[in-house]
Amino acid sequence: MMRRRLLLLVSSSFVLLLTGCWDQVDIEERGFIIGSGIDMADEQKKQGRVLTLTHQFVVPAGLGAPMQGGGDQKAFDNLSASGESMFEISRKMTEQSSKLPFYRHEKIIVISNEVAKLPYLFGEMMDIFLRNPEMRRSIKVAVADGKAEDVLNTKPESEKIPAIYLDSVMENSFENASGMEPVKIGEVHEFLMGKMSYVLPRIIAREKSVESEGSAVFQGYNNQMIGTLNDAETKALNLIIGKAKQGIINISLNQKNITYEMEEAKSKIKLDTNDIRHLDVYVDINVSGVISETFGTENLFQRSTFKEIEKHVSREIETKAEQTIKKAQQELKTDIFGIGNMLKERHYDQWQQIHDNWDRGANYFSQSTFHVNTTTRIRTTGNVNKSKNE
């Protein structure tokens, strides 16, 4: 009796092992997608929109060194298909490819500004990607100033695969304080769920390079791109919301140029909700850094000179911040600073009274008053005291 039970148990185990592999796909049969782009198709129908989806597939044979073979073979292959729905496009893509699409290694999704400017479409596109169980929440999302396909067709000299190159450009741009922090699809999901306005990195394709340039501003209630911020405005935004890491600030003292290298920046935002429809927003920015270059003859070891430079740097930061706030309130009429989120988290009952008219309708965001204060500290003058032109 025990022997029969043992045989039955062993047989059942083999059945489970076999059924567990029924849908396994060999690695050779998988098409590894490293990047995706979404554009409006060149030819549109009179009724309904036509989209073009481009996937960038890795070609493993092209990744080898020249002496190993594959030196002259491309390391990627871009495949595009068009249709009125993502489901239709996906079916066409599968029919065109000899391999099953595999998304686990995807680095970035690029949306054309033409797609981004249509109400609700960006949210619909992201929803389809978010529902894919293979998609990692760390995939970056960016808006192309032009066609997304052109970005994926870039031929960088330093990298074999454009999507990997683009991923590095976005990381380096933020680390060097010339761009905004990369936004991941998991964060986009939170934006869509919260219906809050948001900002995404903006990229421009050149023939052999891609540049991260400013940011694209989206209205939260319809996920429509309604404007852009240039590099200077994006830097100011980073300082206001506490996401600036480092950067260069140029000032003029006694008609001589001085370069202040910001090494650390912090910000704190406080809200005065006594009049919820005319909010007072207090932004305190604290920066510290070094003087990296000077063309003047001032003695930088004098405390009075330190104080004067610190004052000029603070004034420069406040001016840029106030200009960016003015653009957000008067031109874009969109809360790019996350003030609505702060109200929701800290003053939920009051937020419920105004959330439908925060940065739309009556637009209480535009009626809010911002107060910006900056404190600057110079840690050291570096290796310079006076200019050589003394």
TrEMBL record:
Domain Spore germination protein N-terminal: 23-203
GO cellular component: membrane
UniProt xrefs under InterPro entries: GerAC_N, Spore_GerAC-like, Spore_GerAC-like_C, Spore_GerAC_C_sf
Entry-linked Gene3D superfamilies: Nutrient germinant receptor protein C, domain 1, Nutrient germinant receptor protein C, domain 3
Domain Spore germination GerAC-like C-terminal: 213-382
Domain of life: Bacteria
UniProt keyword Membrane present: yes
Topology relative to the membrane: Lipid-anchor
Main localization of the protein described in the UniProt heading: membrane
Chaperone listed as a keyword: no
Alphabetical UniProt keywords: Germination, Lipoprotein, Membrane, Palmitate, Signal
Pfam family for this entry, one: Spore_GerAC
One GO term of the biological process aspect: spore germination
Family of this protein: Belongs to the GerABKC lipoprotein family.
This protein's name: Germination protein GerLC
Biological source species: Lentibacillus populi
